């Protein structure tokens, strides 16, 4: 098939179905169930999620990062605080997450706000990372221009020599966020494009209202 036939690429989604009786009243528990099933299924990068932020001109931007924790309060990820996403979150902390579990014919979409994590929490995670990842955090000025890969590797090697004799400290330009959700949607592919979609919306009393959506 050539690229001219993109409109003809399609398939049926018949792997599973979803109804309200199968859902947990708590969307975070439902998410953890689906995440575990994605991990158990051996999906590549099951914790990969697309995050969307918006700049001061209203231009959305997306990128893929890894989920590093989840629980009753929300979703956690880490990043360079000089990165585009961190700079955009500084002036508008509204954020959207998307988990694309294609092989299970599932998606999860999250809308919420991103709140900075404490230095203690960030440091705890940073020190648990492989040494090479710690060095890479020091070497990269994320989202800033770099003329060649050789220059990037040169900086990596300089950091490697600098911290050769001791523990690598937490950079002051590296941090993390807790995404507190107010809306979470679970999508299960269905035959004939009649997909199952359920949207959880947080209520003023912190309970969750579940609504089935048209596909």
User: Count of DSSP helices?
Assistant: 5
- Overall shape: it is globular
End-to-end C-alpha gap: 28 Å
Quote the average pLDDT.
Answer: 96
Strand fraction equals: 25-35%
Low-confidence stretches: none
Main β sheet profile: 9 strands, antiparallel
Task: Give the ordered list of helices and strands.
Answer: HEEEEHEEHHHEEE
Binding site for FMN: 63-68, 78-79, 84-85, 107, 142-143, 187, 197
Enzyme class: oxidoreductase
Pfam families: PNP_phzG_C (PF10590), PNPOx_N (PF01243)
Family: Belongs to the pyridoxamine 5'-phosphate oxidase family.
Write the layout of secondary structure elements.
Layout: H1 27-40, E1 48-54, E2 60-66, E3 69-71, E4 74-80, H2 84-91, E5 94-101, E6 106-116, H3 119-128, H4 131-139, H5 149-162, E7 174-188, E8 196-202, E9 208-213
Antiparallel strand pairs: 1-2, 1-5, 3-4, 4-7, 5-6, 6-7, 7-8, 8-9
Helix pairs in contact: 4-5
Key terms for this structure?
alpha+beta; 9 strands; 215 residues; globular; single chain
How would you summarize what this structure contains?
This protein has 215 residues and is of the alpha+beta class.
Descriptive report:
With 215 residues, the protein is α+β, with helices and mostly antiparallel strands. It is 26% helix and 33% strand. The chain is built from 5 helices and 9 strands, in the order αββββαββαααβββ. Strands 1, 2, 3, 4, 5, 6, 7, 8 and 9 form a 9-stranded antiparallel beta sheet that branches. Helix 4 (131-139) packs across helix 5. The longest helix has 14 residues, at 27-40. The protein is globular, with a radius of gyration of 20 Å. The two termini are 28 Å apart.
């Amino acid at each position: 098939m050539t690229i001219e036939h993109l409109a003809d690429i399609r398939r049926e989604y018949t792997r599973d179905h979803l109804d309200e009786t199968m859902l947990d009243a708590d969307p975070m528990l439902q998410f953890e169930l689906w995440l575990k099933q994605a991990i158990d299924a051996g999906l590549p990068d099951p914790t990969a999620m697309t995050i969307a932020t918006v700049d001061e001109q209203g231009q959305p931007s997306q990128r893929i990062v890894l989920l590093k924790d989840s629980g009753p309060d929300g979703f956690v990820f880490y990043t360079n605080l000089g990165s585009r996403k961190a700079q955009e979150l500084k002036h508008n902390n509204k954020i959207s997450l998307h988990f694309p579990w294609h092989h299970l014919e599932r998606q999860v979409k999250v809308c919420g706000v991103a709140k900075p994590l404490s230095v203690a929490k960030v440091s705890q995670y940073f020190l648990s990372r492989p040494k090479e990842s710690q060095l890479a955090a020091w070497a990269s000025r994320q989202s800033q221009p770099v003329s060649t890969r050789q220059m990037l590797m040169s900086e990596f090697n300089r950091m490697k020599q600098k911290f050769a004799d001791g523990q690598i400290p937490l950079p002051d330009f590296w941090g993390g966020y807790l995404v507190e959700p107010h809306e979470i949607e679970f999508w299960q592919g269905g035959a004939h494009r009649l997909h199952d979609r359920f949207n959880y919306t947080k209520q003023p009393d912190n309970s969750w209202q579940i609504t089935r959506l048209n596909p």
